[in-house]
Automatic annotation (TrEMBL):
GO terms for cellular component: mitochondrion. PANTHER family: OS04G0488500 PROTEIN, PENTATRICOPEPTIDE REPEAT-CONTAINING PROTEIN PET309, MITOCHONDRIAL. Keywords: Repeat. PPR repeats lie at residues 44-78, 79-113, 114-148, 149-183, 184-218, 219-253, 254-288, 289-323, 324-358, 359-393, 394-428. GO terms for molecular function: mRNA binding. It comes from the Eukaryota. Belongs to the PPR family. P subfamily. The keyword Repeat applies. This is Pentatricopeptide repeat-containing protein. It holds the Pfam family PPR_2.
Length: 451
């Protein structure tokens, strides 16, 4: 157009700016905006709204706010979309006070807020956990005669689900129905997920059936929530029944689907099936991530198949999936179960070389390994190393050391460790006492007092 001497209309430029915004080509949007100035193409309110959105996406909220003054100086009056864009930007950044300030400016200038304005503020409040304020603003919105959308209801439902207040979450779902507003697949996904998190499997299943009765088709997220919930409950049959149903409806399994199923198979010691599903996942072009690898590693380590576990570690390196402390802790636990504590110790050193910081589980694993073998000198050496880098002993630390001392028939030392444990404000559990009583009995030392 430029080469032919045809000056693009503002509508053409706005369409291009809008496209660059949608595909996140923000720098290109600024290049085009500068070109518009050179060609003396006068910006419309729509142009300014797009550029304010660009600034918000870049996190430049102060400049976005200043842009309103700039457009006013050029004789372009901001509209509700202008203010909504800015309010949404502030809310997304967690700057609710700034959003409220823009909200007040908007009303002062005679621009009436719409349902999107209130929706953005309610969403921001819910993300910050300010649910009572969000509910109050929701009521105010309705008082002004604005009808909340399903998105606004879903925002509140999500907030109360995260808080664990399912009664309030379901009350908003019921309110939607009373007003003739059909809950969306997202509404059901939020509620089903919350029910699973509360361990209410039957209720979650009923809600899944209700979706079908209302003609709402489940999506991949629905299936992933249901499959993951049943996998956490170790219900392999139900999880795979949902997986088959998902495939029959042409919904492609995702990384989350495969990982959940591999997890439950591993926990059920069905490692051949877990490996087969892992290979199927890769064949279908779904690349495993760290969580997938850790789930499969855990299963093989628990079953003593350390060769397969280490082959998975090598595959992680090939696929450029960096292992974490969970990966190494799992491998260390596998080695310790076999009594190969020295090799577990080498793994601790290897994880340090990779730049992975061992955590208290790493050290407790070694302490437990040495204690089970009765190598208390090494166990206490690891305990001291743990203390030197700032980790406090946990129940597991003390229980493992007490068990090791009792194994070596050093009941008196075990009792001293128990006193130390109590002095640090830790309440011994049943495992601590049973181990200690058994050790004292084996040592031939019976005491008759309240201790």
């Amino acid at each position: 157009m430029k080469l032919d001497g045809a000056i693009p209309k503002i509508e053409t430029c706005n369409d291009m700016l809008s496209l660059f915004l949608r595909v996140n080509r923000l720098e290109t949007a600024w290049v085009l905006y500068a070109e518009m100035f050179k060609l003396r193409i006068k910006s419309s309110v729509y142009t300014f709204n797009i550029m304010i959105n660009v600034l918000c996406k870049e996190g430049k909220l102060k400049k976005a706010k200043e842009f309103i003054g700039f457009m006013e100086n050029l004789g372009v009056k901001p509209n509700v979309v202008t203010y909504n864009t800015l309010i949404h930007g502030y809310c997304t950044s967690g700057k609710l006070e700034g959003a409220h300030m823009i909200f007040n400016v908007m009303k002062r200038k005679g621009v009436e807020p719409d349902s999107y304005t209130y929706g953005s503020l309610i969403s921001g409040m819910c993300k910050e956990g300010r649910l009572e304020e969000a509910s109050g603003l929701f009521d105010k919105m309705e008082e002004t005669g604005l009808a909340p959308s399903a998105v606004t209801y879903n925002t509140l439902i999500d907030g109360y689900c995260n808080k664990g207040d399912l009664e309030k979450a379901f009350s908003y779902r019921d309110e939607m129905l009373k007003k003739g507003l059909m809950p969306t697949v997202s509404t059901y996904n939020l509620l089903i997920h919350a029910l699973f998190m509360e361990g209410k499997m039957a209720e979650a299943d009923d809600l899944g059936k209700e979706m079908g009765e209302k003609g709402i088709n489940p999506d991949s997220i629905t299936y992933n929530i249901l499959i993951n919930g049943y996998c956490r409950g170790r219900n392999v049959r139900k999880a795979f029944s949902l997986y088959d149903d998902m495939l029959s409806k042409g919904i492609q399994p995702t990384k989350i689907t495969y990982t959940s199923l591999i997890y439950v198979l591993s926990k059920r010691n069905r490692m051949k099936e877990a490996d087969n599903l892992f290979e199927k996942m890769k064949r279908n072009g779904v690349l495993p991530d760290l969580v997938t690898f850790n789930a499969l590693l855990d299963g093989h380590c628990a079953n003593g198949n350390m060769d397969r576990a280490f082959s998975l570690l090598n595959e992680m390196d090939k696929l450029k999936v960096p292992p974490d402390e969970v990966t190494y802790n799992t491998l260390m636990q596998g080695r310790c179960r076999q009594g190969n504590v020295e090799e577990a110790r080498e793994l601790l050193n290897e994880m340090k070389k990779r730049g992975i910081k061992p955590d208290h589980i790493s050290y407790n694993t070694l302490i437990s390994g040495y204690s089970r073998r009765g190598d208390m000198k090494d166990a206490f050496k690891v305990r001291d190393e743990m203390l030197s880098i700032g980790f406090n002993p946990t129940h597991l630390t003390y229980n493992a050391l007490i068990q090791g001392l009792c194994k070596n028939q050093e009941g008196v030392l075990a009792e001293e460790l128990l006193k130390e444990m109590v002095s640090k404000g830790m309440k011994p559990d049943d495992s601590t006492y049973y181990t200690l009583i058994e050790g004292i009995a084996k040592d031939g030392e019976f005491v008759n007092n309240d201790d």
